[in-house]
Amino acid sequence: MNNSFNPLIIRNKEFIPVVQGGMGVGVSASSLSSAVARENGIGTIASVDLRHLHEDLLAESKINPSEEKYTRLNLIALNREIQKAKTQSEGRGMIAVNVMKAVKDHAALVRQACESGADAIVMGAGLPLDLPELVGDYRKNVSLFPILSESRGIGIVLKRWMKKGVLPDAIVIEHPAHAAGHLGSATVKGVNDEKFDFKRVLEETFELFKQLDLEREKIPMILAGGMANFQKVSTALREWGANAVQIGTAFAVTKEGDAHINFKNTLMGAEREQVVEFMSVAGLPARGVATRFLSSYIKREEKLQANAKADPKRCTQGINCLTTCGLRDGLPNAGQFCIDLKLAEAFRGEVDKGLFFRGKDPLPFGTTMKSVRETVEYLLTGQLVAIK
Ligand SMILES: Cc1cc2nc3c(=O)[nH]c(=O)nc-3n(C[C@H](O)[C@H](O)[C@H](O)COP(=O)(O)O)c2cc1C
Ligand code: SF4
What we know:
GO terms for molecular function: nitronate monooxygenase activity. The protein is α/β, with parallel strands linked by helices.
């Protein structure tokens, strides 16, 4: 497909300037990531709890469940998804793996992704200060993309990495007022802070590059959050100096998206006012669709937070998936529900029970499901008629 944007260049290789964001649990796995890679884009597998995609692993995890087993089966699932995605991408594009810093197994997931042949590790939901060490010698072949939301965080990561002689291969800037899932602000109210404005973050970061004696071209900047719109892509790439956009929600609902059809319909059918923010159990604000579960949880949130109590038994599944968990650790400012259970219910298409992450902005094709190719084509050429 012809488009008039400059390619995204990572380690001298050219890609279309569209990145598919990692989406857990099981929303972006081998099918979606490889479809994006086949368009010569960057497709991302979300590494969190991929065992749900493999019936044999899920069945095994139910026999004498343990934390160790949960970790081991998820690493097997990640390896399987990477192998499949690499084969199905037919040598085009890139297969990246998203790892959330907040997840207890983040180091093991990074290691597995490297061993399994991932082309890049994308890390957010916490400052990825130690990502270079986690990747170690694999860095020769594995690109590193931190996800950050404002220039201060970018400065902290850059300075720390530069002391180790490492630079990010690209930086994802995720806007807390638009993106889906966990958001990079401290509080729900804080998501609209002006310090997150894309244009401002870019300007401040380019200034920071100057202070650090870094060439601006050296580190591509990728904007994430509400960017699934040709006009916005044009402005970001042509006027603001960004190098690519990262898209989540609009790819989650494509034909190739790995999620259940009910998941896609829930995201596509949500009106703007049904997309809400709340505190996640991981201690960060998050954004999703106000389904029956989420609406009722939000109503009870204050009461539940007032009853927060540190108790290992509150991790009913006993898998301790998060390093810090508001429910298990009794943190009164964090969420009070088991996010692993809720995301798994959404993955299975249980609309009333599950937690469905979604970005704030309208989708390019409304409630119509399109393919990855059609979505990419619209984003880069504006050619398909977008429905409001
Ligand atoms: C269903 C869903 C799950 C997500 N899960 C993750 C995740 O596991 N890790 C992560 O870093 N970002 C996650 N995200 C954020 C996306 O990677 C992406 O940056 C964001 O959705 C961009 O905003 P947009 O949805 O407006 O395009 C998720 C987004 C969605 C829609
Ligand atoms: S309660 Fe749920 S979200 Fe919290 S650590 Fe345990 S499994 Fe994870």
